[in-house]
Amino acid sequence: MIINKKWKVGELAKQTGLTVRTLHHYDQIGLFSSSDVTESGHRIYNEADIAKLQQILSLKQLGFSLEEIKAAIENPNFNPIEVIKLQLETVKKQIEVQEKLYSRLEGMYELLTNQQEVQSEQFIKLIEVINMSEKYFTKEQLEKMKNQTDLFSLEEKRQVENDWAELIANVRLEMEKDTPIESPVVVQLAKRWKELTNKFTGGDPEIVKAAERFHAENPYNPLQYGVDGELYKYIKKAMSHI
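Now predict its structure.
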């Protein structure tokens, strides 16, 4: 006898680590809804729903926005096998970075426990690997961005920093004035934002997507250099009018 397992929204949230609020949000935007609803209005999820949720979360981990995920899974040519394949490749890269980090830490540990001197270059290498283990960028993406910035002279780096500071201040000014995002002045700021971003990413769309994910998920991180969640959403919407 085949028993089809079913989950209430609270049970599904508890077992997946998601919040009920997140599941409700996915339902509201038409991304993920339960197959059944009780007479009293409670959502009931089945095994097919769970498979779909896995695909959504896999794509989200790969850096896709909820809008992009919705478009992908509604596409008749959508292939869930390719999602798993992409995620496998991503996880493999992450494992390689972690293995390299483990090797560096192990070597550092042995030197320190034997009271041997650790050269500053070794600490720099360790810091480099730790940076590469960040969840938002792959090793290759970090190296590409590093290579981009290595092309800058000291004067150029300072100029870019000043350009960013000025741009962020101008965007904030327009945002606080409630200037429409489609206005020429804001669209021009969005173009400048894209130009400066390309200086660091080399125009690589995957790096841009990873950077956007970082900004979206860390709106008040000190690394944002004054870009809070509200400002980021404002300029992100403005870029759709470029």
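The CA atoms of residues 2 and 47 lie 12 Å apart.
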